[in-house]
Amino acid sequence: MLDQPLAWFSHRYLTGAGPFFSTCTNLCEEAYAVLVWPIKGLPLLFIGSLAAFLLIRIGLRRQWGSVFLLLLLTHTASQISANLLKMATHRLRPEVLFEKGYDGLGFWQAGPNNDSFPSAHVTLIFSLFWPFAVVFPRYRSWLLVIPGIIGIGRLILDQHYVSDVWFSSWVVIAWAELFRGVGLACNLVYHKILPKKLAN
User: Fold this and answer.
1) What are phi and psi of 176, to 5 degrees?
2) N or C: which terminus of the chain carries fewer CB neighbours within 10 A?
3) Conformational region of residue 61, where left means phi above 0, alpha means psi within -120 to 50, and beta covers everything else
4) Is 43 strand, coil or helix?
């Protein structure tokens, strides 16, 4: 595993970039705090995404409006999965490695600082951008700039290992593809198969 060697390399040689990535992380946290501002007990993100889906996809019948439902489902499922995995794996954070070291990969260890896998920050931010990257592949590179900065920042700031960040991204991608596949299947049934059945 390259986790520990890369963590040591970052810790020794890349800490000078820490203030930049810390600032970026703080800005994203503040922006997300606005997105989850409660309105009648529900987060603004939930209400806004659902309203946008109903208006654009259902009301205006614009195909791309499905991105807001994909966003809502992917973000929610990814966050729940990440939290459950943290509770199940109890992986030590890199700071424990730097302070006193440990044997193995650091999974299923007693606390504190045993919630490294996967990265909640990466899951959170990536799940907000990846649905748009799926629906608008033309702009995918630009859409992944902020998630990329956050992911690299978690390494530079000694908060996570590479595998924590990498796995977080794939959790989001897996959920997005699952919901996208279900959406395509439902669309096929509604527009192709069901009309033929009714015609017969």
Assistant:
1) -60, -45
2) C
3) left
4) strand
What is the number of H-type helices and E-type strands within the chain? 10, 2
> How far is the C-alpha of 128 from the C-alpha of 68, rounded, in Å?
10
User: Rg of the chain over CA atoms, in angstroms?
Assistant: 20
Tokens of 110: 């007693």
Q: How far apart are CA 110 and CA 98, in angstroms?
A: 17
Read off the tokens for 79. Answer: 């966050």
**pLDDT, tens digit (0-9, with 9 covering 90-100), for 63-100:** 999 999 999 999 999 999 999 999 999 999 999 999 99
CA–CA distance, 123 with 75 (Å, rounded to integer): 8
Enumerate the domain spans of the chain. 3-199
Quick one: which H or E segment has residue 163? Answer: helix 162-188
CA separation for the pair 160, 95 (Å, rounded): 9
What share of the chain in percent tops pLDDT 90? Answer: 88
Question: For the segment 24-73, what is each residue's pLDDT rounded down to a tens digit?
Answer: 999 999 999 999 999 989 999 999 999 999 999 999 999 999 999 999 99
In the predicted structure, residue 189 carries a pLDDT above the cut 90: no
**Rounded Cα gap, residues 153 and 132, in angstroms:** 22
